[in-house]
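User: I'm writing a tutorial on reading structure tokens. Could you give me a worked example: one chain, its sequence, then its tokens, then a sentence or two explaining what the tokens reveal?
Assistant: Sure. Here is the example chain.
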Amino acid sequence: LGLPRPWDQQWSLRIQQVLAYESDLLEYGDLFEGSKVVEAKVDELVEASLAEMERIQEMGGAMAAVESGYLKSQLVSSHAERRARIESGEEKIIGVNAFEGTEPNPLTADLDTAIQTVDPAVEARVIASLQNWRDTRYQPPFNHPRPCKALEKLKEAAKGTDNLMEATLECARAGVTTGEWAGALREVFGEFRAPTGVSSAPVAVTAEEGSALATVRRKVELTAKEMGVGKLRFLVGKPGLDGHSNGAEQIAVRARDAGFEVVYQGIRLTPEQIVDAALAEDVHAVGLSILSGSHAQLVPDVLERLRVAGATDIPVIAGGIIPNGDAEDLRAAGVAAVFTPKDFDITGIIGRIVDEIRNANKLDPLEVPA
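And here are its predicted structure tokens:
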């Protein structure tokens, strides 16, 4: 869990309150009514939306579009195209690719304390409380019936066509936890992993002769050749409950376009699942994207599991909302490189990943002429 400081939250709230109460914005239903420019934009959006809805209907509806991966691939493609415009300078983002110079800013001072994290003692107390509940729910004053029978009934209902609500309510009356309830259903149904949209996303940045991407592609090819493999393999992992997948997806797409074979299984994976995939796919690097503030717990977990598996030659790269102090700690723990949102040059990041693969495999630094 990572949250903005109370001061930062208040700053955002005050901006909205000033607009609401110190201006007359809320006194008008539509400030732009009658504007030819706005009406034209509305017509454009409506036309495009109706066309998209028609395409989805032809596929069989929204569920079919989700299951086929179409919706996700469209989202990933749209983000990739926008990233390409930002990197080329076609789309200006103030402070990122335009007007980057700045005076010292009190809003960004002391960023090492800018992320609120959960006290480990609080986490331990919650886990202990849960375990205590499981151990004592059969006793007075609760006197719940044994949950095993309720869970078995739930699984039987899930295997058939019965409505699950009755069995679920019985689980609640038996003191079954949400984790036990979900685990029982997972045993029956398995776990759905939605298409990631990465493999089907079109190329957003072309590797034209002399371009930065062409240079990185050449580095990837030469490194693979020196290592005696057909392609460099790169696993992009999203550990924990962080659902913000855009950054990981854009790294995965650009790595693919740079010539990597990319392994990306989507969001909400455990460190164990990520390491198992890295070993099974025999990858040459692991990239971890964490924007929830839990990097200090999850990244070392992955590093330790790789160490136990004897895979310390696989460099681990971390990316996310990571304060400078935490970044230093991660590097000291063995992370090869740390990237944050200010590192918007994705092609440059991919090039750095190639460098870390070469370094981990004791290959000489590679300079490729542009």
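What the tokens reveal: The first strand starts at residue 3 and ends at 4. The first helix runs from residue 6 to 21.
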